[in-house]
Fold these 2 entries.
Entry 1:
Amino acid sequence: MSFAAASLPGALSSELLLRRRIPAWLLSLTLHLAAVLVGSLLVRGSQLPPSGEEASHPASIVLARTTASAKTDYFTPDEKRPPETDSAAASADANSSELSVSLPTADSPPPSALARLPELPGRLAPSGETIVLKPQSTGGSGKSISRLTAADKAAILAEDAARPRTAGPTGPEAKVSLFGSGEAVGRSFVFLIDRSQSMGGDGLGAIEAAAKELATSVANLEETHKFQVIAYNQKPLYLTGRELLPATAGNKQQLIDFVKSLPAFGATEHEVGIFAALKLKPDAIFLLTDGGDPMLNSGQLKTIRASAKGTTIHCLHFGSGPRGGEPSFLQTLASSTGGSYLYVDMAERP
């Protein structure tokens, strides 16, 4: 008792001292805020799920449908969609701007009955490979010239002859001669050169000699004259384009450069080259060849003669050493079209 009595005055004095330093209202506000904070933490902690678990949230699917009357109906997947009340509502649904996916039904046609894209002809190019399409020499029926029959070729040229012929070169005529051959008189000329392997540098060397001879001969042509150069083996190769060219200085130089750089390879198809030249309807054709196999037979010569109306064919026959044996088909071809024939012995040329 004596201790309590002795300490009471000191406690009262401490409380009085604290009240003097902190106002009563501030102390009350602090205690209330602390109580609210502790209570909030206790309530939140009681609502947290146990450690390692996530709170689950129930979810459901609701389907919505907008009808023609702009009314929206909501229903779950377990509920059946209410039937349409009239055909107008069904039509409105069909014209709706909402995206829909149509699933196959029993009435849908099988995939094989659906339209397919047309297949491209030929094989597809492997990745990284480029297929270059080259123009093919064809006749009027689309067949390859080398595969046409004599009747087909005659029909093609007869069709060409029936068409109105475009105006040819005008002005004075020119006279052209190669290797001392007979002169061809006219305003348009085609120089038809056999480029098979036997005509090249590893054979007779006739192509190189032809380039030098042409450089001299075409120099006499005027710009009013026209010409074309066609080289052939199994198919024809033109100087440029597939028509007669004006004899300008530039075209003359192209002609010389073309023949100088002409590679010789492959077999010989005389008929292919001759028909390509006749299609241009020139006044004269100079055929430069060694007359190698296959030679033209009598039927082919007859077809060519019938087709070469107004065009003379001058044949230059290249060989090595004196020509012997039977007359060449080139002689028959030249005489039947009003042209000239010349044998050129490459062994005697410098």
Entry 2:
Amino acid sequence: MHADITTPSNWRAASHFDAWLKARGMPGIAGVDTRALTALIRERGMMNAVIATSADGKFDREALKKKAAQLPVMDGLDLVPRVGATKDFAWTESSWDLEKGYGTLGSGALHVVAIDYGVKRNILRLLTDRDCRVTVVPATASLDQILALKPDGVFLSNGPGDPAATGTYSVPVIKALLDKSVPTFGICLGHQMLALAVGAKTMKMKQGHHGANHPVKDFTTNKVEIVSMNHGFAVDRESLPKNAVETHVSLFDGSNCGMALTDRPAFSVQHHPEASPGPRDSHYLFDRFVAMMKDKKPKAA
């Protein structure tokens, strides 16, 4: 089946989506009944798939099925090395403004070290908006390397793969940062990393959460936010230790979507507050992180 990709509808579009994909060697599909696909995933759970193309419309279906069956499963798969930074770099770009475009960092009153498991740029922009000077470091950065940067706080980023696999090298560093009471904020995979660091467990979900209209309740404000989700693993709430309080929960399936420690300055959420589905329902989380860093930062004499 052939279907043309629709033309751009946003006046800011610089090129056609088809051209954008081809320039980056990325595959895409069109003309698919996404409702039927959604129903299939709902019934059978997440599955591996193969995208294939043929000029004459003929396919060796058995060969394609065999190829799909040979794809690796997500359990035990550490994908962070494929997407994270390989060396430190500074981030100074702030959010986009209709009149001015992207802005730049102000005075940089607070210094945040962001551990990069596959960080989204808008997370970094929202930190910069709040006058945070951000240094991004690889997921494999050691405790000494992070502390040498003298952070006021550490951010644990989003990213792909099985959190338990990434945790083999990341969790010991996070544990040490927590022991030193360094203010810590995690999003998505960062949330799972923080949970593993305090002794909780993660589990593979049947369908996972993907999309931009997920209702999540924040027990600390008693409000419901519309958030963006993109994860196939979740924190097992039954495994949370006594010093970890559940702060957010999905109103779709009741799964854990956030936690905060009672004895150390650290909290995290499963959803993506920077993705603006609400569009700004969850931006307060960045303010909460800044307030935590300011409270911990030594006061000038």
